[in-house]
Amino acid sequence: MTEIQVYETATQMKVLFIGGTGNISSASSRLAVEKGMELYVLNRGNSKVTIKGANSIIGDITKLETLTELQGHEWDVVVNWIAFTPEDIERDLELFTGKTKQYIFISSASCYQTPLSYPVITESTPVCNNLWDYSHNKILCEQRLQKAYSEDRFPMTIVRPSLTYDTVIPVAIGGFDKYNIVDRIKKGKEIIIHGDGTSLWTVTHADDFAKGFVGLFGLTQAVGHPFHITSDEVLSWNMIYKILADAIGREANIVHIASDFICKIAPSFTGTLLADKAESVLFDNTKIKTFVSGFKATIPFAEGIKRTLSWLEENPEKQNIDVETEAEMESVLKAYHGLG
């Protein structure tokens, strides 16, 4: 007897997203509905994002007393977009053992070996990152799920996104859910690129990620396996920032500063730099392409970032210029120029 039923059509699947309205997850929510899945989205009801065609369940996954509506459901697929600690996994094991045919944990590609002993990452690359609590906790979550699968056949699948964007700016300093980098480029202010900018990275649009991700739903052979899902486009950080500046219509005023120096002056950048983006990384997507037939990322960064910037222009309330981040960047620049 197989661990998961193999579905003939997506319309047979009943799917729960814990989260589902964020930067990465919204695209997957929309695609799941488009494919005819019966999608339920569990969140606290604070998000202004509405997934047309999805069923809403209001509740807080961290407060079991708010989850009474879940008790009457069984699921074909459960995806937790907002699990970060082993305690979150223990709770989900209690909630969904015997209640779902597949549980998908959203981990992170930052879990992979840091520093890398070999720059091409496959799913067999060791997971070992003690430089960033975020990554270390994700690894502990993975280990707990592997144990649950090995000992109890809990039907888990692990997915490790890398730097994935839709409504955020995918750069190392001054971006993501902050608008600082765009504001500084528009005003001609200095922006920081870590190192000499020649290290390689991959950024992935959430619409591309969704194609591989939703393709794993109900896939019997995916149970027990980890996957990363990224674009195959490889860019240097210099090119990432240049493409961003070109999309803004300005020339970037770039200052290259060593990652070690940046983190010494502004330790808050240690996780995103030394534990993640400071060295070249190349992702081998053979596995997801093998399991999800026809998967291919088709949105180049030059196109995707224009979509993001247009969305931000249409939603000025999302143009968050973070005062603390701005002060940290200025302190790094001041120290670098010998003005401190």
How would you describe this structure to a colleague?
This protein is an alpha/beta fold and 340 residues long. It has 2 domains: 10-164 and 203-229, 3-Layer(aba) Sandwich (Rossmann fold); 168-202 and 234-281 and 300-335, UDP-galactose 4-epimerase, domain 1. The chain contains 11 helices and 15 strands. The strands form 5 sheets. The protein has a 7-stranded parallel sheet, sandwiched between helices. Strand 1, helix 1 and strand 2 (38-43) form a beta-alpha-beta unit. The longest helix is centred in the middle third of the chain and has 20 residues, at 133-152. The protein starts with 13 loop residues before the first strand and ends with a helix.
Number of strands: 15
Terminal Cα separation, in Å?
A: 68 Å
Q: Which fold does the CATH topology of the largest domain refer to?
A: Rossmann fold
Discrete helix count:
11
